[in-house]
Amino acid sequence: MSGLSRRDLVVGLFTAANLASCSPGPTYSFNFRTVVTVTLRESQFVGEGVQACRAYLAYAFPNPGTNAMGGLYGEAVPVELPAGRILFALLNRFDSMGNSGYLERWRPEDILAGHYGVRLDWTDSNNDGMAFLGKIGQGEIIHLSRDQFPTFATFDNPSDPATAKLVDPDTLNGLGPGGIGRVESVTIQLTGDVITRESSRLLPMLRGRGATLESFGMGPFEYHRSYFTTFI
Prior knowledge:
Structural class: alpha+beta
Oligomer: single chain
Number of strands: 11
Low-confidence stretches: 7-21, 96-100, 214-220
Helix content: 10-25%
Distance between the termini: 42 Å
């Protein structure tokens, strides 16, 4: 074989085998609207956005099951408040078990599945639960319990990633002077509306390909920007 070394041949065969070991399976997707209502100094403010949950399944050989990839897509939901302050309901939630520096993904699909009485099996190539949720279209409004809330955050300066901080939804501690209030409610609702990009509109750092939040420094935001957006 002129021009091909033994190593090239082995690497090529190994790559081909890996590509052949997985074949595309079903793709499941549904959009949902998240609405956040905040009371601040006896006034109410509302923010909303449309996000999506997607699952991509691939048949794995020789294993009889499948591998699932996917997750939550879209952007954090902003609530615009007086004096230029913005409260963000993130795509992740703080790990209350104390693993400092990490957030876990917020899982609205589990809340929706529980509400509609279906099961989500991330290793089943015939995922009836995800398929069911994807066919509903406009669904019922579901009020989340406080332990189902996403994590909330704000920026002292929306143009400076290093000014990010967590906000307690029960007190709005972290919003600075006058931040006396609470997150009254969070609701989610299946919808056929398209994903919104309100966080990118309000945060200059999220605009443009390759934008990053790596300059956050300390705290749970120091790794990447996927807490605020999944768009690249």
